[in-house]
Amino acid sequence: MFNTNKINKNSLGYNIISEKEPMGVVAEQYRKLRTNIEYSSFNKELKVVNLTSAFQSEGKSVTALNLSTVYAQSEIKTLLIDMDLRRPKIHRAFQLSNAQGLSNLVTQGLSKEDVIHEVNDYLHVLPSGEKMPYPAEFLMSKKLHALIDEFRKEYDRIIIDTPPMTAVTDASIVGKFCDGTIMVVASRQTDTEAAKNAVKQLKENGSNIIGGILTRVSKKDNRYMNYYYEYK
Questions:
Q1: Where are the beta strands (DSSP E) in the chain?
Q2: In Å, what is the CA distance from 180 to each residue of 104, 117, 126, 176?
Q3: pLDDT higher than threshold 60 for residue 170
C-alpha cells in the first residue's frame, strides 16, 4: 500500500525492547498490556488509543513504541502516530527525519506515502512533522479528525503518543476523538494528586479512560513492572 522506505530492524532504537528481546520479561508485560486493552473493550472496539502522563519522562513514549510493536508482532496492522507536536520523540527511536509528518500531511496536502514510514508489513509510523504555531487549534481541526477517520479504515489499531497533561491540554483534545486513553504513571516519581487531577481533567473533557500503566519500577518490585490497572 505504501511506497515508502522500509527500515532495517537492526536500526530500531534501544528502547523498543519488545523488538530487541521479544521473548524477554519486559516484552511479555507489553503483550499482557495489549491483551488487557482488548479485554477492556466489551461494548466498543478500541481501535484508536492515545497515551498520556501527568509529567515528562514517565515512560509514555517508550510505552507507545512497545505497545505498537507487540500489536504488529501479532500481525495486527498498526499505525503509531506522534501527536506530541511540541516535543516529539517517536521519530528518534526509528532514526527517522521529522521534517515531514502529521502536520505536513494535514496542512500541506501531502500524500500519505510521503510521510508514513513502513517499519515492516504490520507497523507503520507517522512522525509529528513540522512544528505548528498553535498545536491545540491544529488538534481540534476538522481536517485532522477526518484524517483519523480515514486511518480507521486502513489500520486495525492506531496508537497515539500525546504530551503530558500538566504541560498542555493537547491530550484532552486528542482523547475526545480516540476510543480509549491510557495514563502512564512512573513509580515513586509521579505526584499522586497530580495524577488524579490529570485523570479527572481527561474525564471531564470526554476522554474514555481505559486504564493506566505503572513504569520505572525498581527490580526488587519487578512483579509490578508495567502493571496495567483500571482507575476506579
A1: 48-53, 78-82, 117-118, 123-126, 157-161, 180-186, 209-215, 228-229
A2: 26, 24, 19, 9
A3: yes
Fill in the DSSP letter of residue 22. Answer: T
What pLDDT, in 10s, does the model give residues 94-138? 889 999 999 999 999 899 999 999 999 999 999 999 998 899 999
Record: fold of 9-229: Rossmann fold (3.40.50)
Distance (Å, rounded) from C-alpha 72 to C-alpha 141? 29
Q: Hey, where are the domains in the chain?
A: 9-229
Tell me the C-alpha distance between 75 and 218, whole Å. Answer: 32
Distance CA 174, CA 163 (A): 10
The C-alpha atoms of residue 151 and residue 158 are separated, in whole angstroms, by 8
Give the per-residue pLDDT at 220.
53
Please name which of 146, 168, 176, 222 lies closest in space to residue 53, comparing C-alpha atoms: 168
Where do we find the cell 527517522? Answer: 96
User: What spatial distance separates the first Cα and last Cα of the chain, rounded to whole Å?
Assistant: 42
Question: Is 47 exposed, middle or buried, given 0-12, 13-18 or 19+ CB atoms closer than 10 A?
Answer: middle
Model pTM score: 0.85
Percent of the chain with pLDDT over 90: 46
Backbone angles phi, psi at 105, to 5 degrees: -65, -40
Q: What is the pLDDT of residues 35-92, one digit of tens each?
A: 888 877 667 789 999 999 887 777 889 899 999 999 999 999 999 999 999 899 999 9
pLDDT at position 1 over 80: no
